[in-house]
Every structure is written in structure tokens, then in C-alpha cells.
Known about the structure:
Bound molecules: adenosine-5'-triphosphate, magnesium ion
Strand order of the largest sheet: 3-4-5-2-1-8-9
Amino acid sequence: MNIKLPTEVxxxxxxxxxAGFEAFVVGGCVRDMLRGITPKDWDVTTNAxxxxxxxxxxxxxxxxxxxxxxxxxxxxxxxxVTTYRVDGTYLDARRPESVTYTADIEDDLSRxxxxxxxxxxxxxCGFSDPFDGRVDIKRKIIRCVGDPTQRxxxxxxxxxxxxxxxxxxxxxxxxxxxxAISAQKENLxxxxxxxxxEELTRxxxxxxxxxxxxxxxxxxxxxxLQSRTYEGNLAETIRQIEKSxxxxxxxxxxxxxxxxxxxxxxxxxxxxxKSVQAICLYVRLLPVPIPADRYAIKKYLYQMPAAYAQLxxxxxxxxxxxxxxxxxxxxxxxxxxxxNIHESCECYTxxxxxxxxxxxxxxxxxxxxxxxxxxxxLLDAVMRDPTLNTKPTLLSRI
Length: 398
Ligand code: ATP
Ligand code: MG
């Protein structure tokens, strides 16, 4: 099979080769091409040393120079070019102590995590595939390069990567590799919460949600959850996640929907503030059926981040439909009312109220609690009756 490479990538490979070096595309991009999927980025591996790579291209960045990686800009797109390397000894199941450059592509491929990720290709030499990764891709198998116990011992994140790839690619984890995960699960405590979060999120957004169950069956779950057990019925949650759009916040909300303290676990996993707020709001509102009533819906919209209120509300309805909080006909009715509220530009925020703090101050109401309460009660009246939202009407009500 021939792989069609983008012009920029071919240029990088031929430039390195013309200077007397070897160069291959490698890793996820080769795997994805072999699966018939267009890669989202292209990585190049070469025996040229970083300073030699830099001398051959006009625009480069030292992004990962510690690990031998130079970013080469071609046609304004970044490509990572990494010198063949082997990882030094791993002291803490987390990061190699040092990296050593090597002259042999096969040494570089042997440090990689799974056979499907350890294939190199270039148009002149074809494939370098010493671990039969192409066969495993064909059979849809995730298998460690070398001895799984040793490889997970070196870097515990690989265990979670295996499960994430199972969830995103729909591949099966080979038995020895899977057993080694169960045996070494405790080592995941050495991996930073950020990296665990990243893999968990990608797993949850995968198209093959059944792989989520592997977190429980391998015993990795409590380590993923930063020393907590899963709260809720995981099998049922997985069925719900399968029905959800592949949106991070929606799927995380379903995954954590039965947690007593959602915010604590999200913070422990170092989620950003915006995500914590969104997920906590969804989880809090999820179990409560919403009446098909304009005023009640505006009260909901008011609680949501103003810029995305309608999207938030529609997402909440999607979640309620999936978890069967209300029947589909009721959800459809709620969707229709909320769209109608937006189309008719009905006010449910203080910003779109026809009077503001300045107007009240002009009437002698001092800024502070009294002013806030007055504005809120005017907003409440306007939410019940949109025709009241004119300055004269509202001022006359004060
Ligand atoms: P994707 O980008 O779709 O997640 P990928 O395979 O490109 O998949 P990256 O994290 O971008 O994954 O890594 C690029 C390559 O580097 C991998 O294909 C693999 O060969 C190697 N690699 C990445 N992480 C590890 C690791 N923890 N241990 C060993 N090799 C790794
Ligand atoms: Mg990648």
C-alpha cells in the first residue's frame, strides 16, 4: 500500500534525504493512514540531529528540543521532526531520565508504546514495521511493543492510552497487554492529574464507548478518579454516553452525573474553571424535570452563561432526553418554546432589561442591595410579561 503524503511532508523528507539523512513519517499519522483516515498531524523521525534539522529549514522552533524535537514550519503549518532516540532509564514510571539519540530507525520504533504506533514510512524505502504493526491494525489489536509489564513499568500513562485508543479506534487490547494493565494499575498514581484528565476526556469522547468499562475491569478507575470509586451505575452510564453527541462537557456530565461532589473530583483532575462550571451546572439541573412553561424556561436561561444560554439549555434537554428525565415529546415542546423565546428576543437577562442601574440611580436609588433587588424584581416581571420591557413602563413601576 502506498501512502499519499501532503506536499509539505514530502518536502521535509526529501530535504533531509538530499542532505544525506534518513527520514520517515511515523506514529499516529501512519496508523491513521493505514486505517483509511486522514491524519490530523504529521510527525517525522530522522537520524539528523536537531541542529542539523535546523540548518536545513528556514523556519523552525525549538519546541521539544530536550527530547530531540524541532518544529519545522512549511507553508505556515507546523511539523514535528524528531531525531531517532531511545529513552534512558525510567526511574519513576513517568518520564525517562534522559534521552539518547540513535542511528537506527528500529531502535527508535522499539521505544514506542504500541505496535500500531511503531510503524515508519517513506516513499523511497516503504514501511519499516519491525513489530508487525500493520497486521495488528488490520486485526484491530492494541499490543505493546515488547514486554507489556516492562513497558507499563516505564511509563504508566501507556495503560490509559491503551484504553483511550480502544475507545477512539474501536480496537481490542490484546490479552497480555490487558493483563499487564490490571497488574500495574497502581502505577497510575505517578501520572499527573492533567495527563489523566486528557486521556479520560478523549476516551469519553470516543466512538466506542464500551471501552470505558475497561477502566473498571482493569481496576484503573480509582486511580483515574484520584483515589475515589465510581459513583453511579457505570453500565447504564455507558449506554447513555453512547447516545450523547461527542461533546466533552456533555459526556463528562453524564460520566459524573451521580457523583456526590462533582466539583471536587473535577478540580482534582485539574479541569479549567469554565469546564467545572458548565459540568456542575448540567449535573445539578439534569435530574429535575422542566415544566413546559415560558416563564419557567426563562428562569433556567437566566442561570446559564448569557452568551451561550440557548445552547446550554438545548444541551441540558439533550441530556434529559438521554437519561429519560422527561419523554421525547415533552423535550421537543421545551425545545420549541426556548427557540421561540429567542426568536422573539424576549428578555431574561439584566443586560437586556430596558432599564439599568444608571436609570435607577437617577431616581435616587443608591447602588447596592436595594438597587440589585429592584432590578431583579423588574426582570422577574418582564420574564412573566415581555410587553412590560420598555423604559417608561418599568420606571413607572418603581
Ligand atoms: P493521537 O495523536 O491520535 O492521540 P498518536 O499516536 O499520534 O495518536 P501522540 O501522543 O501524538 O499519539 O504520540 C505520537 C507517537 O509517539 C505515538 O504514535 C507513539 O509512537 C509515540 N508515543 C506517544 N506517547 C508515548 C508513550 N507514552 N510511550 C511510548 N511512545 C509514545
Ligand atoms: Mg499525534
